[in-house]
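DM from R.C. (forwarded with permission)

"hey, sorry to bug you on a friday — could you get me a structure for this? deadline for the figure draft is monday and I only need the backbone to look sensible"
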Amino acid sequence: MTQKDITFVADFLTEHFNEAPDLYNRKGKYFNVERVGQYLKDEDDDLVSPPNTEGNQWFNFLKNSTHLKESPLLFPYYPEKSLHFVKRKMEGVIDQCLQKPADVIGKSVHQAVCMSLYKISKSEDSTPQLFKLPFLWNDKTSNIHYVLFTMLENSISKIHILRRHTDTSRSVSNGILAVEFGNFLNNSISESSDSRCYSCLDAHFYDDETVTVVLKESVEQEGRERVLAQLPLS
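My reply, with the result:
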């Protein structure tokens, strides 16, 4: 150890572990705790060694700002409390903010339609993931909601399109349909159906009338093609 290291440790011990008679009435040890550790204690008690905020630019800025000083948008500062205490206070405020919207939205949502997409055996221990996360699109011109999704395993070459009117009392034709890609990129009908079979990697709406899909060759070999296709929704 260098003399600088020894001096650093000695200063640390002198500052934080000297006796503090003013703390004798407090529970715990009769010396200052390490200044960082006190912030991490999950207690509601005041800090033993609260920070010195004198000269802090943020506090000076708030103090000199007429509009921000009493602003309800700023989270209050608790200089005497640990981070655990502040975290619990903040979580309480956030929960309170979210409760009202959750109640209103929850009461306004209801089931419009129920469709059975697939069935699985109840005896299976783990449910396989057959439904790939959908992509949503809202056509404001026609007031129609679209959901694009794929079903894994037996139908990887298909994308499914679900259509619902924003007015739940109205229905649309072809409420749900599937588009199969298969070997549609083959140059001729004489090509083997297995030679150029494609499956869907991803699908998104490009605009109200066009769907963009990313396809890949299903054949397990090096250099498999990837195709970016723009398909008219019609």
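R.C.: lifesaver. The chain has four helices and seven strands.
me: no worries. The chain has a mean pLDDT of 79.
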